[in-house]
Amino acid sequence: MRKTSFFVIIGLLAFTACKKSPSTENDLRLQDERAVGTGGTITVFDNILFYTGYDATSTAPVPTGVQRINNSLYVRKFSDAELAGIGKDLKMDVVIKADCDNYDRIGRVYFSLIKKGENYNEQRAKNIEIGRFITPFMDKNKAVKEVPYHFSLTNLSDLLQDKTIRANYDVWVGFSVFGVSYSAQKEVVGCSNSNATFFGTLKFSSSPSTTVRKDSVNIVSLSYMKMAGDGEDNELNKSNKTATGAERTIPLTLSKALKGVKLYLITSSHGANPEGEEYVRRVHNVYFDNQLKSSFTPGGKSCEPFRQYNTQFNRIYFDSALPDSYWSRLNWCAGDVIPIREISLGDLAAGHHTFKIEVKDAQFVEGKGNIIASAYLQGTE
What pLDDT score was predicted for residue 17? Predict the structure, then answer.
């Protein structure tokens, strides 16, 4: 019987000029019999209200079991009953509803593993980003007020089903949307005195799982991922932003050989100023052990399917449909998900390895913008 292993090399890799980070390995050997999940739907957050990220943290009441870390981040722990019911073919659905932010913002969802019974602590947790999306330009007074986002997370079903993980760790879900209401206070009717930004609903669903297997789950956290903000002011972004080129290298150590390893990568470019990275598509190169494993250019697809959600006038969408040639300059669409890229690495030997992602031609014009990436490995013993 094969054993499944998860190696997380996850972080807010907000690229600047050739910025590298040292590695800190935390290796957990966990073995037990996997539970059989009944499947179904779990609503983690139901119409939760986010507030302006730059303002003092709101003191408005939150639902039982939910913690507001700041105006842009809520967390909640999966209950034992919820984890016991999770089956196979995990899916995640997010719905964002307009309030008083009429701009495109970054939203994220992540898992945090925290030692059983301890309070939530983002810095001490083992974090894995599981989804990222961009909000549309929305006017809450228009007929279309909501935008849905769908994610397939089949590979993560094993993580949540593992009985030893559940015995030793609490699994928390983080839900982040960094919004700002300042423009809407002037431009959207009913928002003049409000610092609320968006409502968010987050659900997980899975199918019944009838297979019982012996699994081994191994987590290696090599880079801290801060999900609380929009990435503009984190430590990795404070120097050399006007230089050309961006890269990040992370070393890691595998205690055992792995077979059929896959790397799951989320990356998005930001910077709305003239010649900003949002509007210039760049080649991304992914290396493992100094070998090029993937080369891709994000974006380039038509954003017309998301026109229906962009109800606030903006400088991206105009009054009528636009040709593909117009959309080909963009890295992503307002109202769409950021893709989760799956990159096959093959079999890996035990010992030291390196992961590297580079965007050679990136230019942080006027010192603005960033490229935000996160990644984790998954293989079998």
Answer: 46
Which phi and psi (to 5°) does residue 24 adopt?
A: -130, 115
pLDDT at position 5:
58
pLDDT given for residue 323 in this prediction: 93
What is the four-CA torsion angle of 81, 83, 88, 92, rounded to 10 degrees? 110
> What is the spatial order of strands in the sheet that 169-177 belongs to?
66-70, 73-77, 169-177, 106-115, 126-134
Give the CATH class of 30-217: mainly beta
Q: In this structure, are residues 109 and 227 in contact, taking their beta carbons and an 8 Å threshold?
A: no
Q: In whole angstroms, what is the distance from residue 341 CA to residue 223 CA?
A: 19
The span from the CA of 336 to the CA of 346, in Å, is 31
Identify the pLDDT of residue 240. Answer: 36
Q: What is d(CA 79, CA 171) in angstroms, rounded to the nearest whole number? A: 8
Residue position matching structure tokens 């209401």:
181
Instruction: Give the pair of three-digit tokens for residue 111.
Output: 């898992």
DSSP labels, 89-140: EEEEEEEEEESS--S--EEEEEEEEEETTPPP-TTTSEEEEEEEEE-----T
pLDDT of residue 211: 64
R_g (Cα) of the chain, nearest Å: 21
Q: Compute the distance between CA of residue 289 and CA of residue 209 in angstroms, rounded to an integer.
A: 36
pLDDT, tens digit (0-9, with 9 covering 90-100), for 333-368: 999 999 999 999 999 999 999 998 899 888 888 777
Per-domain boundaries in the chain: 1-28+234-298+339-381, 30-217
Q: Would you give the distance in Å from CA 332 to the centre of its chain?
A: 14
- Taking the C-alpha atoms of residue 369 and residue 311, their distance in angstroms, rounded to an integer, is 25
* CA distances in angstroms from 10 to 7, 131, 174, 247, 278, listed in the order given: 9, 13, 15, 15, 23
DSSP reduced 3-state for 210 = coil
Q: What local confidence, expressed as pLDDT, does residue 70 receive?
A: 95
pTM score of the predicted model: 0.89
Distance CA 322, CA 38 (A): 46
User: Which top CATH class is 1-28+234-298+339-381?
Assistant: mainly beta
Sites in the chain below the pLDDT cut of 70 = 1-36, 211-244
Residue type, 165: I
Q: In the numeric block, which tokens belong to residue 75?
A: 């967390």
